[in-house]
Design goal:
The chain is 79% helix and 0% strand. With 145 residues, it is mainly alpha-helical.
Length: 145
């Protein structure tokens, strides 16, 4: 249970931080000036405003992904650490897609609610947060035979 909680917190917090930085970089690419203080303020605001929701969604996703990665790892006889990291990464990808589907199907909205997930590179970067959570789980969870 401790490994799961640590993984959820690590994955959710790092994904939040990476997501913030991706969005801020989009603004820089559009010509905005983004000093370190503004980056820090935006990151802290997202850690208090966005992170709780993202952590809750990550917790739900990890409840499915991490046990499945463990089963597959035992079934194939290896790749445990890679499997947990990959499952954390995929959790974020599925979560971002599910949020977009919800917005489109239920709210009839065409906006992308998580700005960092608008393009391939943003998704790639925020997925690293999910993978990090999977790695935390791999390091802390006891091995099962």
């Amino acid at each position: 249970m401790l490994a799961y909680i640590a993984a959820v917190l690590a994955g959710g917090l790092l994904t939040t931080i990476l997501s913030t930085q991706v969005v801020l970089q989009y603004l820089v690419n559009a010509g905005a000036n983004m000093p370190f203080g503004a980056r820090l303020d935006a990151t802290l605001a997202d850690l208090t405003g966005f992170a709780p929701t993202l952590i809750a969604l990550t917790a739900i996703g990890y409840l499915i992904a991490l046990p499945l990665a463990g089963l597959i790892s035992r079934w194939i006889g290896g790749l445990r650490t890679f499997g947990y990291a990959a499952s954390g990464y995929v959790t974020i990808m599925v979560m971002i897609h599910a949020i977009e589907v919800f917005y489109q199907a239920i709210l009839a909205s065409t906006i992308t609610p998580i700005g960092s997930g608008r393009d391939f590179w943003g998704l790639l970067i925020i997925g690293i947060g999910g993978a990090a959570g999977g790695l935390v789980f791999a390091k802390l969870a006891p091995r099962r035979r």
